[in-house]
Amino acid sequence: MTGAAGVSAHAELWSAPIDRVRAIAAAPRTEPPPPRSLSWPALALRQFLSPVTLILVMAAAVATAVGDATDGIIIGVIVLASAGLGFAQEFRASRDVRMLLASVSTTVDVDRGGEMLTLVLADVRTGDELQLSAGDIVPGDCRLVSAQSLVVDESALTGESVPVDKSADTPLTADTPLAARTNCLFRGTHVVSGTGVALVVYTGRDTEFGAVAARLMKHPAPTAFEHGLSRFGILLLQVTIALTIAVFVINLVLGRPILDALLFSLALAVGVTPQMLPAIVSVSLSAGARALSRHHVIVKRLDVIEDLGSLTVLCTDKTGTLTGGTVEFSQALAPDGTADARLLELGALNSLLQKGYRNPLDDAILRVHQPAPGESLGEVPYDFARKRLSIGVQIDGTPTLVTKGSLESVLAACTSIRGDRSPTAFELVRDRYRALGADGFRAIGIATRPLDAGERIGVASEAALDFAGILTFRDDVKDDVNLEIADLSGLGVRVVMVSGDNRFVSRSVASRIGLRSELVVTGAEIDRMSPARLRRAVTECDVFAEVEPRHKEEIVAALKAGRRTVGFLGDGINDSSALHAADVGISVDEATDVAREAAAIVLTEKSLAVVADGVRLGRRTFANTLKYVRFASSSNFGNVLSMVIASAVLPFLPMLPGQILLLNFLADLPSMLLSRDRVDPERLERPGSWNLRSVRRFMIVFGALSTLFDLATFALLITVFHASESLFQSGWFIESALTQMIVLVTLRTRRAFFRSRPDTLFGAAVLAIALLTLVIPFLPLAAAIGFTAPPFGMVALLFALAAVYLGSLELVKRAPWSGFDRGAAR
To answer: Which residue ranges form the domains of the chain, and what is each CATH number?
Structure first.
C-alpha cells in the first residue's frame, strides 16, 4: 500500500486532520464479505466432484448409452445414495462446527451512529467508533479519537516485542514509519493497558495487516494426522492403479467385452478406494468436537483434535488452574512486619484510579477497601517488563506518586525503606518476602515519592522511591488438582507450571500439588541460558517463575524442539504469543479477547480435569478414524486381490459392477458410525501415531487372509454346489459382506472381540447389514442386480466358513508381525 515516493496510499490515516479522516471513513466503498462456510448446495455439489464419483457417473452414462440401462441405473442409484450419505454427514458436521465457533466468537464494543453495540470482529465496518480497553483486539486500521494511558502490542504486525504508547495527538507527517504512527491503531494488534476511542477507517484486505497477510499467504502446515491420511491415500492409489490395470488386461486377454471389462475394472477401483474416508474423517472430527463441547471444551479448528490427543506436555499458568483463582487480600504489612492500614489505602487508590487492565489483585484490594474518590494526576501503565504501575494522586494535599507491583521490581526503583537507606533494611524486606512466599502468600510492594512541581509523570518518575510496605494475598490450591495432575500423568502428559509470580510462591504451590519443586527456573535465568541449555532445562524442571511473555514462548519452543507435542493453557494478555507458539493453544471463555483469539481450544471451565477429558476424547477420535483405515485397507485390498485371481480362473465375472458398488456401499453404512464407537482404555493411555510401513503390513497380512478365505469360498461354490454365474455371484456377495462385517467387529480392538463392547448403535448397524445381505438375493429385484436365491445349505456353509474366518482373525491379530499395534496407532 505505497504510492509515490514510497509514501503509503493510506497516509491520510495518520497525517490528515481528524475531520478529514472521518470523511474517508464515511465514504462508500465495496468491502469483500467475510469468508463463510460452504452453502448446502455447494456442499451437495462437492459430493459429485471427487475423481472416483466422476468416473462412476461417466461409467453409468456409457453403460446406458450402449444399451445396458440396468447397469447404468444401478450404478447411478448407488452413486446418488453414497453422495446423499456423505452430504448428510458433512452438512451436520459443518453446522455443528459453526454453532461451536459462534459460542466463542471474539467481540468488541462499538459506537455506530450513536448506538452502542457489541459486535463480532468480522462485523465491524468503517465509520464505527471502537471503545477499547485492555485485552481488546483491534479489528481494523483506526485513527485514535481519544486515549488514556493507552499501550498497544503491535508485535503481530511489526515484530517489535515492546508495547507502544498511543495518543490522539495532532497529525503526523505522511512519511512517518509504521512503528512511529502513535495516533493510529492497526488490525491484528491488541490493547495491553489503558483505554481509547478509535475510528475505524480501513478493514479487511485494505489494512496494513491485510496487505502483509496477502503477501505472505500460505496454507498452514499439515498436522501429523493429515500427513498420515495423505500418505495412506497415496498408498491406496498405487494399489488401485496396479490392480485395476491388471484386472482390465486379464479380462481383455480372456476375450471378454471391452465395456464389461471397463465397468468391472472401474467398479474394482471404487472397491479398493475408501471414497467415504473424507466424510468419515469429517464426521469423526465433528463428532469429537461435539463430544468435547459436552465436556466443556470448544474446538475452534477441527484439525487440532488430533494434536490434543497427541499431547505430551501441558504448560499452564498457576492462577485459576492450579489454584482456586479467587485471590483474597490477606494483610497490609509495614517493612518490619507489623500491620499498617495506610498501605491498604495507598494500594486501593492505585487500583481504583488506574485506567488499564484491572487484574485479580486489584479486585481483591477493592473488595476489602474502597478509598475516598480522588483525581489521577497521571499514570505510568503496567507492563510486563517493568512489572509495576504508578499513579499520581493528591495525598494530604501533596502530589504523590504511588507505585504498586512485583516486590522486587518496586524495590529496584527504591532508594530507601521508610527513610532507611541501609542495605540491611533492604535485605530484611527481601527476607520477609521469601518467608511469605514459602508460606504460599503472594506479595506485592508499595512505594511512594512526592512529585515535583509541574512534573510530567512518566517511566522516569519511577526513581528514588521510598518503600512503604507489603500487601499480601492468598489463592489456595484447588482441592483435587493433585489428582488431576496424576490423571494427566497417567495419560502420558507432563504438567509444567509457567508463572509470572515469584519463585517462592511458585515453589510452595508446586510442592503441594505434586510437581517437582526442587528446581525452579526464573525468567532472569532463562535470559542467561543458551538455546541448548534451555532445552535441557525444560526437561529437568517442572516450575518456571517470574517469567515474561517472551520467556513463555521460549519455553514452548524449547519443549517442541525435543519432538514433544506441547499444549499451553493461559488466559491473559501476556499469554498470547505462547498460545500461538504451542501445538495446542488452550484458553478459557472468560479470558482476554487476545488470549481467546490466539487459542485453538477454549474451555468453558478452567480445570485440568477438563483438559484430561479432552485428551481422552482426542485420542478416541484418532483411534476411531484409524479403525476405518484398518478396515478399508485390509478388507478392500483383500476383495480386489480376490477379484484379480477370480478374473483369471473363472469363465465369467466373479461379481458384476453394480454388485461390487452395492457391496461397497453397504459396508460403508456401519463404517459411518465408527466415530461413535468405544475405545479400549489401554488405547487411550498413550498418544496415537502414524506408521505407514505398519499400515502397509497390516493391509497385506489381513488382505491376504481375506483372499485366502475368498478362494476357499470359490472352491466351495464351484466344487460342492456347481454354481452358475448368478449363483456364484450371490454366494460370494453374501460371504464378502459377512466377512467385511466380521472385520469391522474384530479388527476394531486388540482384545478378543467379545471382551471389547462396541457402541450399541454401531453394533446394531453391523448386525442389520449382515441380515440385509442375506435377504437381498431373495428380494424381487434381485434378478435385476444379477442375483439368484441361494439354497439353505450354501448359506449354512458360508456361515460356517465366516465363523472360521473370525477365529483366524482373532489368532492373526495377536501375532507380532500382523502390524496391528505398530500400524496406524501405537
So the answer is: 4-30+105-216 (2.70.150.10), 229-290+617-818 (1.20.1110.10), 297-324+478-606 (3.40.50.1000), 328-474 (3.40.1110.10)
